[in-house]
């Protein structure tokens, strides 16, 4: 699935803020080896570099477009093209960090123990995932897809992979010396025309549009846009409020 780093980074501030807030809760002074899984264009990696300038820092990313953007940044990091699911390093890491990535990966009950096995003793696995699968922005995508003539084509477009906070506790508590799990709902204040559509165009909408031809895409977007305008009306001051729930986990091995 293709990613467009420029569309993604239209909301760079809102998308990077959770990475900064996750990082603030990682209680490690001077880790030697740090990796950013699903580093995207390098925005989350930049926060890691600023916090730990002396660490050996890596960014792992499956999208060539995103990785090219990261490589073009001035960041001093090792950039690796690869898949989180098959990541199997020979060495252990002090910090395995991931912001807004695992929602794209299935079977977290298998993934997380596997990732914890790559964390050094006393090190941290820290990740953030959106937990907005049932919010109107995502429910309406599925509603349009299910009611469309291409319902079959779009059947697998998006699966629910993110678990509840309690389920993450159950998976990680037996493997952690300490565990910190919390949720936040950001009341995001967006500007401009159809800003929620612009937001999801950089992320969750892509799997619904990529299987469609050009005309089909136009129809899909027109129907989805009309529903979004009702769910997220533009206020008298021109702003649109877009509440966004996210879940954070910091597990110390
Ligand atoms: C929403 S972006 C997050 C980018 C960045 N970490 C940030 O904080 O904004 C998700 C990124 O995860 C990458 N990704 C998704 N699944 C992946 C996988 N299985 N392995 C490696 N990267 C993956 C995507 O290519 C994309 O760049």
The top-level CATH class is Alpha Beta
Number of domains: 1
Ranges where pLDDT stays below 50 over 5 or more residues in a row are none
- CATH homology superfamily name: Vaccinia Virus protein VP39
Order of helices and strands: HHEHEHEEHEHHEHHHE
Strand order of the largest sheet: 3-2-1-4-5-7-6
Globally, the shape reads: globular
Ligands present? S-adenosylmethionine
The beta-strand count equals 7
How far is the N terminus from the C terminus?
33 Å
The number of helical segments is 10
**Can you tell me the CATH topology?**
Rossmann fold
List keywords for this structure.
binds S-adenosylmethionine, alpha/beta, seven-stranded mixed sheet, single chain, 253 residues, 24% strand, 7 strands, Rossmann fold
Describe the structure.
The chain is an alpha/beta fold and 253 residues long. It has a single domain, classed as Vaccinia Virus protein VP39 (Rossmann fold). Helix content is 36%, strand content 24%. The protein is built from 10 helices and 7 strands. It has a 7-stranded mixed beta sheet. Helix 2 runs parallel beside helix 3 and helix 6 crosses helix 10. The protein is globular and about 50 Å long. The mean pLDDT is 96. Bound molecules: S-adenosylmethionine (SAM). S-adenosylmethionine binds next to helix 2 and helix 3.
